[in-house]
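re: ur question from earlier - yeah i can do the single chain one, its not a big deal. heres the input i used so u can compare w yours
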Amino acid sequence: MADILGVSQSTISRELKRGMTEQVKLVNGKREHYESYFSDVSARVYQENRERSRQKGIEKYDQVFFKLLPEQLKPPKDELRIHSVDTFTHQYQKDNPDKRVPCTKTVYNLIDRGELDVRNIDLPRKTRLRPRRKKPTDTHGTNKRKLGRSIEERDSAVLTREEFGHWELDLVIGKKTKGEPVILTLLERQTRHYVTKKLWDKSSEYI
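and the output i got, formated as tokens:
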């Protein structure tokens, strides 16, 4: 049967166990007890078990929190709503550090499953939770686009200014206006000779 339905044998076993009901019949004037499977009984037992599991999940948290949450998210029409799920949860945790309060994601999951007196339509804005990106460990940072060797890799002679012919290039860019010229600056490190030139294109090919 499991192969025909495409499920595991344990799934079939659990289904049969939930739906088995004791029956009684008369055989030659005597009562005989036997078990028979009923799909409606299995469905009812499944829903009852699921409901008990849900209640147990909610009951482990502070019940006052779940009582106040709908009041904060669904105020009367003449009152302004000042809380979202996130702000109320954090405020309640701060005010009740000794209470067991669910996190924001757990509250959203309970709302999605219909286990609270709050629906998604009642929420001002459902925050999409995303994991935080890890910051790069490189203290110098990482350029998004590498156009050549880093300035930190230049020869030590450049730093001491002992040799002639090492130039520093820079661009001075004004307001971001279309057609605005830029100023090219060149500085020879040993002599400190300084050259400037106006350019109408700042592309690397033009320069």
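The mean pLDDT is 77. not sure if urs matches, ping me
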